[in-house]
Amino acid sequence: MLLREMKLPRLAYNWISGIGFIVAIITSILMTFLYIVGIFAKVTNPYLGIFLYMVLPPVLIGGLLLVPAGMIKTWYKFKKTGVESYPAWPYFDLNKKSHRNAALLFFIGSIFFLIITAIGGYEAFHYTESVTFCGKTCHSVMKPEYTAYQNSPHARVACVSCHVGPGADWYAKSKMSGLYQVYAVWADKYPRPIPTPIANLRPARETCEQCHWPEKFFGAQQKSFNHYMYDEENRHWPIEMLIKVGGGNPETGLTSGIHWHTFIANKIEYIARDERHQDIPWVRATNVKTGHQTVFQDVDNPLTNEEIDAAELRVFDC
User: pTM (2 decimals)?
Assistant: First the structure.
């Protein structure tokens, strides 16, 4: 009679499952409230996003997992002590009201959980791709770079547009790399100053050229640089430069200028001696259409054939 009068199965009444229920309910309410606040209040605090999309979801999942964990623990306890008689394996019987109530609760909770997971996953993806996340949250150690970015011509371009680019593969690579970066910041082991990511930066042909069309002919561009002398009067010292940007489609128009190496008909490869790629003793230019190759070497300190065969050959892009 006691089991029939209970609203939920007897196994659900234990302190572990109770804590799980409370944690899941409180977390769900808190996530819903913060999400609504973020929509209508237009809150831009970066730590709100971390708390909402990265801290609370694992807490919610942990609370939900505590419910069946407590039930299984209680089931093992009853079997071991013999306080109550239970079958050898857990079972589910819709003829019992307590089981029907549990099924209804599980169904409603699952729908709510799926909705929260879908919204949270979508928002978490976009939040970790946002400039706020990159510049103010995890990458606070890069404050100088973030300040320069805000005053650069790319201030309206998201950081990930260049540092990650489109596609799921590079998104996954960036997040895996970010795990160590989080550890390095937490353990205060990151290098100072932050080095340029030469080794693992995505090729510019897959990022920069999404906006900067290499086949577009720009011709020459005039640039003005304002400097001031170090004398007492700080005299103005303007420098005017005519930069031959060039560009163009080799099939239809002129190809020239400083971006000659980015044209689809040209392929420039090089070998660097140092990690910063400042010492480049070997360069090879290939005409993709004809296959003609021209190799340039440092005449004072050339590479040997063995060094060329063992070296990393990199493609020169933007």
Answer: 0.56
